Amino acid sequence: MKNFLRKLHIGNSAGDGASSLAPPPPVSKKGGGGGGGGGGGGAQHEHKHGSGISSWLSSVTGRPQTQPSPSPPFAADAVVEAEAAALASSVEVRRLEVEEEEEKARRESREESVRKREMEKEKQEAELEEYHMQLALEMSAREDPEATQIEVAKQISLGSCPLQSSPAEVVAFRYWSFSALSYDDKILDGFYDIFVIGDEPTLPTIPSLTELHQQPFSHASKTEAVLVNRAQDTKLVQLEQKALIMAVEVRSKTPEFVGHNLVQRLATLVSDYMGGPVIDPESFLSKYQNVSSSLRASIRSAVMPLGELTIGLARHRALLFKVLADSLAVPCRLVKGRQYTGSDDGALSIVKFNDGSSRSDIALDGVAEFEIQWEEITLGERVGLGSFGEVYKGEWHGTEVAVKKFLQQDISSDALDEFRTEFQIMKRLRHPNVVLFMGAVTRVPNLSIVTEFLPRGSLFRLIHRPNNQLDERRRLRMALDVARGMNYLHNCSPVVVHRDLKSPNLLVDKNWVVKVCDFGLSRMKNSTFLSSRSTAGTAEWMAPEVLRNEPSDEKCDVFSYGVILWELFTLLQPWEGMNPMQVVGAVGFQQRRLDIPAHVDPTIAEIIRRCWQTDPKMRPSFSEIMSSLKPLLKNTLANQPQRQRVQRADG
User: Fold this and answer.
1) Assuming Cys at both sites, which of 298, 510, 549, 560 could form a disulfide with 501, CB separation 3.0 to 4.6 Å?
2) Alpha-carbon gap, residue 552 to 308, rounded angstroms
3) Which phi and psi (to 5°) does residue 31 adopt?
4) Residues 321 and 242 in one domain
């Protein structure tokens, strides 16, 4: 074909397919990018023959040859570049979209992690708060519970009190720290008791159960632990089943739910299981050492299941009795150590019988003239919950009254004698800034005091409510009211020391007059100053010497007054964001004080600082405080327009 065309003089004699006038080859559909050299040559060759045929046809037909319009130089390159640019742009857009999506996913992941950490932190703080409160409240087995609370606060302030991760571990830590558990404590799975053998030093803090399990086993170890874990202790479960059958049998024959017969049989069950009566202590101790050594070697751990101890010492028997008693709803305390038993490794279980707390027939003598029959009172709504009981609005013979019913109705004769003494004091107190005592209900289970009712409620509520209506003049008057009432109490004979002065214990009448209440009731309050779970506790207002359980006099009330004055002129809540135990550590042991803002009047700030002196003797009397406040009130009145003044005695 090529030779035939040459003979017709069509095309270029070169015949190599190269033409300088040929347009750039089109982009091959099969080729890509830079791999189409061969394809380009073929395209040019086809174009050359096409042009020759066109010229020949024109000459044959006699028509002039039409020259093809030459393509603009580099037009195809521009198209290719445009397409490449578009493709590159599309790829870049997609890449950016992917990066944005990945960044969004990473951001959401970070935010989720932050949320989880915050939730975990809040959970830990809540657990810590609950743990601190449980730790402080569980002191009822001690003769001096407040002394133990002080030790707890000291440990926490020094950072030596660990946060336990489960209720069982919380109870275990309390038992390790204070050597006592109360009737209300229940021993759950996960509870463990640690004992240091021989003359080894006392552990600075209780190791966790995980740490105990991870310790390599050694016969020379001086630390042993007994664990309550029914899931892995079938023998303990079997003992509980025996105890239950025994209790059903005993209770079917007697109306007493917790009687002497049941307790005796339970004690016998424990004794028989753990080796019987101890006749020769030294021989029995040797038996225990052999049994415990063999048990620890067999399980390769110093943590021994309670049910596996077939020979048990006093501390093991008392613990087992408590576990079984809890399973039968028998109220049981558990105490150990020298202070309770006279021996470092001794322990006791203490049971409360059905007839051990009946006091329904006891009444108070000496307050007959103030005796109020419970049936004479019509109770209304509950308006408060204080450190000693619930407060109700009530009516007595047509008069509005406040009825303060004690939470603790099961009290001893000695406590009732103290209650009577308090009434003897309260019934003779008469002052415009002291809540009026009207009478008492002196028979349990309705042991109560009855006072006048003040409709505006507590000063704490008025200070810290959102729509505060207390201007500076009114707050000065309130401060002076409190100082007057406390000055009266401190000048009584004998001196009446409040010991729990705080804004929740200051009540306000309809005319905005502030009155001191709950004075002289310290013996009737719950045994711990950390008992309140309401918004306002007690430790926030207490003097450092009281927090340390040191001897104190009426000057402790002056320190508390300084906190109230700080509240009135900052409108802030003292030590907000700190739990009571942290406050005890800060004020009682670290000598910290609340910050006084710069906007507080210098005279007020100075009174507050004097009230907060560490040495009680350096604190002012309430008479001195009144002398400092009166000029301030007069100056404030002088600066008010005459029409806004409210006449009121300042004497």
Assistant:
1) 560
2) 51
3) -75, 165
4) yes
Lookup result for tokens 């003089």 = 9
Identify the pLDDT of residue 339.
60
SS (H, E, C) 443-478: CCCCCEEEEECCCCCEHHHHHHCCCCCCCHHHHHHH
C-beta of residue 420 within 8 angstroms of C-beta of residue 365: yes
Write out pLDDT tens, residues 196-249. Answer: 776 555 566 678 888 888 888 777 777 888 999 998 999 999 999 999 988 888
pLDDT digits (tens, 9 = 90+) for 583-616: 888 998 889 999 999 999 999 999 999 999 999 9
In a domain, 193, yes or no: yes
**Strands 303-305 and 223-227, how do they pair?**
parallel
Does one domain contain both 466 and 332? no
Same domain flag for 367 and 406 = yes
Query: What are the catalytic residues?
Result: 500
The number of domains in the chain is 4
In contact, 239 and 307? CB cutoff 8 Å: yes
Instruction: Give the DSSP letter of residue 391.
Output: E
Nearest to 364 by CA among 415, 435, 436: 415
Distance between CA atoms of 307 and 65, rounded to whole angstroms? Answer: 116
Asked whether 272 and 317 are in contact (CB, 8 A), the reply is no
In a domain, residue 65? The reply is: no
Question: Do 128 and 237 sit in the same domain of this protein?
Answer: no
Is pTM beyond 0.85? Reply is no
Torsions phi, psi of 518, nearest 5? Answer: 60, 20
Please answer whether residues 351 and 324 qualify as being in contact, where contact means their C-beta atoms are separated by less than 8 angstroms. no
Residue burial 364-396, b: 16+ Cβ < 10 Å; e: rest: beebeebebeeeebeeeeebbebbbbebbbbeb
Whether residues 220 and 319 fall in one domain: yes
* Per-residue pLDDT, 597: 95
The verdict on 224 and 291 lying in the same domain is yes
- Is 515 annotated in a binding site? The answer is no
